[in-house]
Amino acid sequence: MNDVAPNAKKGSSAFGRYFFVLLLGLVIGAFGAVYALNALSSNPQSQFQQGSMHVMGWNMGQLKQNVAAAKCSASDSIPRIQAINVMARDLESAFPKYADDAAFVKAATDLRTSSNNALMAAPQTCDGVSQAMRNIGLSCEGCHSKFKD
Protein backbone atom coordinates (compact mmCIF):
# COMPACT_ATOMS: atom_id res chain seq x y z
CA MET A 1 0.00 0.00 0.00
CA ASN A 2 1.04 3.47 -0.76
CA ASP A 3 1.28 6.04 2.07
CA VAL A 4 0.91 9.06 -0.23
CA ALA A 5 -2.51 10.69 -0.29
CA PRO A 6 -4.12 10.51 -3.73
CA ASN A 7 -4.76 14.31 -3.92
CA ALA A 8 -1.28 15.44 -2.81
CA LYS A 9 0.83 17.25 -5.38
CA LYS A 10 4.33 16.06 -5.93
CA GLY A 11 6.98 18.63 -5.05
CA SER A 12 4.70 20.96 -3.08
CA SER A 13 5.83 21.82 0.41
CA ALA A 14 4.58 23.88 3.29
CA PHE A 15 7.79 25.88 3.17
CA GLY A 16 7.06 27.16 -0.35
CA ARG A 17 3.57 28.27 0.56
CA TYR A 18 4.72 30.03 3.72
CA PHE A 19 7.58 31.71 1.86
CA PHE A 20 5.18 33.00 -0.83
CA VAL A 21 2.78 34.38 1.80
CA LEU A 22 5.71 36.04 3.62
CA LEU A 23 6.91 37.72 0.41
CA LEU A 24 3.40 38.84 -0.45
CA GLY A 25 3.00 40.31 3.03
CA LEU A 26 6.30 42.19 2.75
CA VAL A 27 5.35 43.68 -0.64
CA ILE A 28 1.90 44.75 0.58
CA GLY A 29 3.44 46.13 3.78
CA ALA A 30 6.02 48.15 1.82
CA PHE A 31 3.33 49.69 -0.39
CA GLY A 32 1.21 50.44 2.67
CA ALA A 33 4.13 52.08 4.47
CA VAL A 34 4.93 54.30 1.47
CA TYR A 35 1.28 55.29 1.14
CA ALA A 36 1.01 56.09 4.86
CA LEU A 37 4.22 58.14 4.88
CA ASN A 38 3.06 60.14 1.86
CA ALA A 39 -0.26 60.85 3.54
CA LEU A 40 1.43 61.93 6.77
CA SER A 41 4.00 64.14 5.07
CA SER A 42 1.62 65.93 2.71
CA ASN A 43 1.39 69.65 3.29
CA PRO A 44 -2.12 71.13 2.88
CA GLN A 45 -0.64 74.53 1.95
CA SER A 46 1.42 72.94 -0.81
CA GLN A 47 -1.66 71.11 -2.05
CA PHE A 48 -3.56 74.42 -2.14
CA GLN A 49 -0.73 76.05 -4.11
CA GLN A 50 -0.51 73.21 -6.61
CA GLY A 51 -4.28 72.98 -6.90
CA SER A 52 -4.59 76.69 -7.61
CA MET A 53 -2.01 76.51 -10.37
CA HIS A 54 -3.57 73.37 -11.85
CA VAL A 55 -7.05 74.88 -11.92
CA MET A 56 -5.85 78.05 -13.64
CA GLY A 57 -3.67 76.10 -16.06
CA TRP A 58 -6.47 73.68 -16.89
CA ASN A 59 -8.87 76.53 -17.62
CA MET A 60 -6.31 78.27 -19.83
CA GLY A 61 -5.89 74.95 -21.66
CA GLN A 62 -9.65 74.71 -22.15
CA LEU A 63 -9.70 78.23 -23.58
CA LYS A 64 -6.90 77.27 -25.96
CA GLN A 65 -8.80 74.15 -27.06
CA ASN A 66 -11.95 76.20 -27.56
CA VAL A 67 -10.10 78.67 -29.79
CA ALA A 68 -8.59 75.79 -31.78
CA ALA A 69 -12.08 74.30 -32.23
CA ALA A 70 -13.59 77.73 -33.02
CA LYS A 71 -15.87 77.45 -29.97
CA CYS A 72 -15.50 81.03 -28.81
CA SER A 73 -18.96 82.09 -27.69
CA ALA A 74 -19.37 83.87 -24.38
CA SER A 75 -20.95 80.73 -22.90
CA ASP A 76 -17.79 78.80 -23.81
CA SER A 77 -15.24 81.32 -22.57
CA ILE A 78 -16.78 83.20 -19.64
CA PRO A 79 -16.94 80.21 -17.24
CA ARG A 80 -13.23 79.49 -17.87
CA ILE A 81 -12.22 83.10 -17.29
CA GLN A 82 -14.40 83.23 -14.16
CA ALA A 83 -12.61 80.17 -12.77
CA ILE A 84 -9.23 81.81 -13.37
CA ASN A 85 -10.49 85.00 -11.74
CA VAL A 86 -11.75 83.15 -8.66
CA MET A 87 -8.41 81.38 -8.20
CA ALA A 88 -6.53 84.66 -8.72
CA ARG A 89 -8.38 86.16 -5.75
CA ASP A 90 -6.69 83.70 -3.40
CA LEU A 91 -3.09 83.87 -4.57
CA GLU A 92 -1.84 85.66 -1.45
CA SER A 93 -3.59 83.04 0.70
CA ALA A 94 -2.17 80.22 -1.38
CA PHE A 95 1.37 81.59 -1.20
CA PRO A 96 1.68 83.15 2.27
CA LYS A 97 5.49 83.31 2.15
CA TYR A 98 5.18 85.85 -0.70
CA ALA A 99 2.09 87.68 0.58
CA ASP A 100 4.18 90.60 1.89
CA ASP A 101 6.39 90.80 -1.19
CA ALA A 102 5.41 93.88 -3.21
CA ALA A 103 6.40 92.26 -6.52
CA PHE A 104 4.25 89.21 -5.80
CA VAL A 105 1.28 91.31 -4.75
CA LYS A 106 1.65 93.37 -7.94
CA ALA A 107 1.79 90.25 -10.09
CA ALA A 108 -1.28 88.81 -8.34
CA THR A 109 -3.08 92.12 -8.77
CA ASP A 110 -2.14 92.17 -12.47
CA LEU A 111 -3.66 88.70 -12.88
CA ARG A 112 -6.85 89.76 -11.16
CA THR A 113 -6.99 92.91 -13.31
CA SER A 114 -6.44 91.03 -16.57
CA SER A 115 -9.04 88.39 -15.71
CA ASN A 116 -11.50 91.09 -14.56
CA ASN A 117 -10.93 93.00 -17.82
CA ALA A 118 -11.53 89.81 -19.79
CA LEU A 119 -14.78 89.22 -17.92
CA MET A 120 -15.96 92.78 -18.51
CA ALA A 121 -15.11 92.52 -22.21
CA ALA A 122 -17.03 89.21 -22.37
CA PRO A 123 -15.21 87.98 -25.48
CA GLN A 124 -17.52 86.40 -28.04
CA THR A 125 -15.08 85.84 -30.87
CA CYS A 126 -11.96 83.74 -31.09
CA ASP A 127 -9.88 86.90 -31.54
CA GLY A 128 -11.36 88.28 -28.32
CA VAL A 129 -10.73 85.05 -26.42
CA SER A 130 -7.17 84.90 -27.79
CA GLN A 131 -6.53 88.48 -26.66
CA ALA A 132 -7.90 87.71 -23.19
CA MET A 133 -5.66 84.64 -23.02
CA ARG A 134 -2.62 86.70 -24.05
CA ASN A 135 -3.30 89.29 -21.34
CA ILE A 136 -3.91 86.66 -18.67
CA GLY A 137 -0.85 84.71 -19.84
CA LEU A 138 1.36 87.80 -19.58
CA SER A 139 0.14 88.29 -16.02
CA CYS A 140 0.92 84.66 -15.23
CA GLU A 141 4.38 84.99 -16.75
CA GLY A 142 5.05 88.13 -14.71
CA CYS A 143 4.69 86.08 -11.54
CA HIS A 144 6.17 82.78 -12.71
CA SER A 145 9.35 84.44 -13.97
CA LYS A 146 10.14 85.58 -10.42
CA PHE A 147 8.34 83.28 -8.00
CA LYS A 148 7.85 79.83 -9.51
CA ASP A 149 8.99 77.29 -6.93
UniProtKB/TrEMBL annotation:
InterPro entries: Cyt_c/b562, Cyt_c_II. It comes from the Bacteria. The chain crosses the membrane at residues 18-37. Keywords: Membrane, Transmembrane, Transmembrane helix. The keyword Zinc-finger does not apply. This is Cytochrome c. The lineage of its organism: Bacteria, Pseudomonadati, Pseudomonadota, Gammaproteobacteria, Lysobacterales.
